[in-house]
Amino acid sequence: MNNFNASMRGIGFMIVGGSLYSLNDAFTKLLTANYSIVEIMFFIHLFSLLPLLFLIRRSQILKTFQVQRIGPLLLRSIFSCVATGCFIYSFSILPLADAYVISFTAPLFMALLSSPFLNEKVGKHQWYSIVIGFSGVLIMMRPGTEMFELTGFVALLGSFCYAVSLVLTRKCSLTENNFMIFLTFTVTSIICAGIFLPFNWKTPLTSDLGLLLVSGFLTYFSQMALTQAFRLAPASVVGPFDYAALIWACLLGYMMWGDLPDSYCISGACLVVLSGLYLIFKELNPSSFKAQPS
Q: What is the pLDDT of residues 59-97, one digit of tens each?
């Protein structure tokens, strides 16, 4: 597979993974009304193991569970766990679309981190796209408003940790398989949440267990899609396409809570979408594509 086709497939997996995450985050926001962050994290990640256990029973996938470098795997898992906790907290306070707005600073962090950590050259067209998209995010964040209170900073911390975890996903994908990357993160999250679970326990209703089960499955498949995206293409290429999840966040926020984006959100979102379309145009033109060293 040449670099251009691999990049296109990576972008596709990124869009699918982000869409699944958006749906999962909407369910998570529903659950925050009645349950603590650690309990939600514990059950979602526990249930996300079920598809993996099914695959283990149906195939020889267990033979692929070999670790080449445990350090980057554990570091990625810790950053992912912190990011998850920060995002769940922000979902409990902010409208879903607003929380996503802050999280979309992640591609900028990713571009900055992918160069020193992955030795990936960020091309000028990718920088144009990232800068335009980040400008749209700033418009939506509206510096000086309530989004810059504690909740906004927690969401921003989650965004940074998420960006670090995605860059480490790219690094880990060079030596580890998708299932081991996912398993390490999931087990780490279960252990971390489980430590605090006795102090935050509330017996789930049957209907809520069903919602947690669905969220667990969505977590599994979105993780697989995102990991595959970073296996196929550089972080600086697929990262900006995480913006596609904003569309789903706005739609789900309106359908489930009646949250309507204001003029700032719409204006900023237009810039975000245009930045993604610009990069798509450049990626669809093979003559403008240059392979990035990994």
A: 665 555 666 778 888 999 999 999 999 999 999 988 888
- Identify the helix (H) or strand (E) that includes residue 273: helix 263-284
Q: Using one digit for the tens of pLDDT, what is the confidence trace for 148-162?
A: 667 778 888 998 898
Q: 220: buried, middle or exposed (CB in 10 Å: 19+, 13-18, 0-12)?
A: buried
Between residues 275 and 15, the one the model is more confident about = 15
**Residue 292 in 3-state DSSP?**
coil
Place of tokens 């749209």: 136
Calculate ∠ Cα 225-119-228, nearest 5°: 10
Distance of alpha carbon 101 from alpha carbon 158, whole angstroms: 12
Given a cut of 90, whether residue 196 has pLDDT beyond it is yes
As a whole number of Å, the CA-based R_g of the chain is 18
Nearest Cα residue to 130 out of 164, 168, 104: 104
pTM of the model: 0.79
Residue 276, both tokens: 């993604």
Burial letters 155-184, b for 16+ CB under 10 A, else e = bbbbbbbbbbbbbbbbbbbeebbbbbbbbb
Block residue for tokens 């017996």? 203
**173 DSSP assignment:** T
Distance CA 105, CA 131 (A): 10
